[in-house]
Amino acid sequence: MGTSVFYFVATLSIFFALMVIFAKNPIHSVLYLILTFFTFTVHYVLLNAQFLAVVNFIVYMGAIMVLFLFVLMLLNLNKENEPNKTALIKVIGVVAGGCLFITLAGSLKAVSINNPLTLSNPNIGLVENLGKELFGPFMLPFELSSILLLSAMVGAVLLTKKEEKDNG
Amino acid sequence: MDTNFVIEKFILVTVIFAISLVIAMYSTYAERKVAAFLQDRLGPDRAGPFGILQPLADGVKMFMKEEIIPSSSNKWLFLVGPGLAMLCACIGTAVIPWGQDITINGKVMPLQVTDINVGLLYIFGVVSLGVYGIMIGGWASNNKFSLLSAIRAASQNISYEIAMGLSIIALLLVTNTLSLKSIVEQQSSWHWNVIYQPLGFLIFMVCSFAETNRAPFDLPECEAELNGGYHMEYSSMKLGFYLFAEYINMFVSSTVMATLYFGGYNYPGMDYMATILGPFWAPLFGSFIFFMKIFAFIFFFMWVRWTIPRFRYDQLMNLGWKVLIPLAIANIVITGIVIALVNNF
């Protein structure tokens, strides 16, 4: 049963991900992206990573995508004020996208499908185990990344402050 | 999968769903009666004795109204909006423990749909998803006022979610678990979390007012500035769904507050009562107490609505970012220090 559910959800993920690109309206794009993230949540549940699943649900679906939608609604994008894309930009886009595709294809080729990775502890994704891992062996990288996030936050606040000074 | 298990859960889900809908339905009646009481009026009293059939009359009225979908709106998303609002309101109750395990004909049955070990985060996730119904509906209406209202709702929910999450972290330091069942079991008799986390409870409560868009945080439906709000273009039962979802949300957040901070189905002297009532009636009595707590919270929601005027937008943001978030962080630090001291000495 698990495998068929996986294939079903994986098909949905790819379908919604393609719709994100092909949707003409940016708001529809974001809504499809939300659905894509929802299918990722289901993938995490299938992998028995409940904590990651619910955090993906809260942070990506519940917070980040709300902000995306918020910004797009404020911008009020429509056909008239869509910037004209020159041929040069299109060529650059194609080259950049092609490079990404080659990188992904190359890295996928390097992965050997015949001997898949098996976890020593299948319950590693539960909150308690994950917490013990993060605050045990991975303490230093965890704390360092939290400092990184904090500095990004302080930087964002600082940017708004500076603007206020210039105006007044 | 066990067939009995499926049937058992199906019955439980149906009963809980029916109870939430009926309570939400009668909350609309209670709201008007409470408003009438607070403003020294009579309130609805025509439909049935004491106006008890008023919610039914309202429902019939909503269904009978002409359904208008604005021609310039995005039709598909216009329909998705209220549906999503109802969905997000209804799925939150799945992880609530409604009572102790009940024994029916020698068979033990838990009064909880599912006890996932991230139950608390699940509720938080559902709450954070609730804003999509408003945002999508407001945007799809293709109306400037609806859009402004949707954007207000989004910024308000995002701001207050942070303080709410921080108050939950302080609660987690006390409970050491994310499973709602264990959280309730820890609060047996009178050991309610509100005693250990009074400030956390206050922050959580203010944030749940904001998350449910109830007064004094009902800025998304501020009629004086927005001509009505995100549901301005809606008519008939689609409008009804938006209004109804608010009452279900109110019920769910009352339930969550009673579960997390007021002991759920626990009450002082429950062990003594269990010996008198036996394994069938004692859990039901616990559930009865639980619902009394929920009703007390719902009454409090209404009481506040008819007492405190609506915030201004800058006051709303100041309260969220400059008062509640620092308070919640201070609460986490103090709770952490106290727990470290208690554990080490």
Automatic annotation (TrEMBL), chain A:
Topological relation to the membrane, as annotated: Multi-pass membrane protein
Signal peptide residue numbers: none
Principal EC category: translocase
Coiled coil: none
GO molecular function annotation: oxidoreductase activity
EC number(s) given by UniProt: 7.1.1.-
Organism superkingdom: Bacteria
Catalytic activity: a quinone + NADH + 5 H(+)(in) = a quinol + NAD(+) + 4 H(+)(out)
InterPro entries, alphabetized: NADH_UbQ/plastoQ_OxRdtase_su6, Nuo/plastoQ_OxRdtase_6_NuoJ
Subcellular location: Cell membrane
Keywords: Cell membrane, Membrane, NAD, Oxidoreductase, Quinone, Transmembrane, Transmembrane helix
TM regions (residue ranges): 6-23, 30-47, 53-75, 87-108, 138-159
Record's function text: NDH-1 shuttles electrons from NADH, via FMN and iron-sulfur (Fe-S) centers, to quinones in the respiratory chain. Couples the redox reaction to proton translocation (for every two electrons transferred, four hydrogen ions are translocated across the cytoplasmic membrane), and thus conserves the redox energy in a proton gradient.
Family, as annotated: Belongs to the complex I subunit 6 family.
Protein name stated in the entry: NADH-quinone oxidoreductase subunit J
Organism listed in the record: Pedobacter montanisoli
Automatic annotation (TrEMBL), chain B:
Keywords from the named record: Cell membrane, Membrane, NAD, Oxidoreductase, Quinone, Translocase, Transmembrane, Transmembrane helix, Ubiquinone
Group of enzyme by EC: translocase
Catalysis performed (reactions): a quinone + NADH + 5 H(+)(in) = a quinol + NAD(+) + 4 H(+)(out)
Subunit structure: NDH-1 is composed of 14 different subunits. Subunits NuoA, H, J, K, L, M, N constitute the membrane sector of the complex.
Name of protein: NADH-quinone oxidoreductase subunit H
Membrane topology, as annotated: Multi-pass membrane protein
GO molecular function: oxidoreductase activity
Pfam family membership, one: NADHdh
Predominant place of localization: membrane
Subcellular location as annotated: Cell membrane; Membrane
Transmembrane segments annotated in the record for this chain: 6-26, 76-99, 119-141, 162-184, 190-210, 239-260, 280-303, 323-342
InterPro entries given in the database record: NADH_UbQ_OxRdtase_su1/FPO (IPR001694), NADH_UbQ_OxRdtase_su1_CS (IPR018086)
Gene name linked to the record: nuoH
EC number: 7.1.1.-
Family matches, as HAMAP family: NDH1_NuoH
Entry function: NDH-1 shuttles electrons from NADH, via FMN and iron-sulfur (Fe-S) centers, to quinones in the respiratory chain. The immediate electron acceptor for the enzyme in this species is believed to be ubiquinone. Couples the redox reaction to proton translocation (for every two electrons transferred, four hydrogen ions are translocated across the cytoplasmic membrane), and thus conserves the redox energy in a proton gradient. This subunit may bind ubiquinone.
UniProt record similarity statement: Belongs to the complex I subunit 1 family.
